[in-house]
Amino acid sequence: MSFWETITGSDLTREWKAFEARAAALPAGYLAAWEQIKGNLHPYGGFTGRDLMPILDAALGLLEEATADGLSIDEVLGDDIPGFCAALAGGAGARTYRDRWRAQLNSNVAKRLGRLGG
């Protein structure tokens, strides 16, 4: 990846188009699950979403393998897709915006208390 690709995000656009092309080959139920997965993983991404690409690739790979094995979407993901996504992102060490803001707030409060108490 070149500096220019990093700055413009053209590498992300290329990867995203590849994901969508792979997803288009999935059956309808899997395609609907893919849309839910994308929506539920979005809050775990950083500003650019670059950190989500490996997670999305793994999730799409899981759906492709399940399709090839003839499994139903419920057998693969269960009935709690948001929970599946939270576990998937948590396993990769991802944090939501809320987690980041909470850490920032706690840090600011601790600094303020340190100044007042010291």
- Tell me what the CATH architecture is: Orthogonal Bundle
What's the main sheet like? none
Helix content: over 70%
Please tell me the overall pLDDT.
84
CATH superfamily: c-terminal domain of poly(a) binding protein
The CATH topology name reads c-terminal domain of poly(a) binding protein
Overall number of structural domains: 1
How many E strands? 0
Q: What class do helices, strands and sheet pairing give?
A: mainly alpha
Output the CATH class name. Mainly Alpha
Distance between the termini: 48 Å
- Taken in chain order, the helices and strands follow as HHHHHHH
Please tell me what the overall shape is.
flat
Regions with little confidence, pLDDT below 50 for 5+ residues: none
> Into which percentage range does the β-strand content fall?
under 5%
Overview of this structure, please?
The chain has one domain (3-117): c-terminal domain of poly(a) binding protein (Orthogonal Bundle), CATH 1.10.1900. It is 75% helix and 0% strand. The chain contains seven helices and no strands. The chain starts with a helix and ends with a helix.
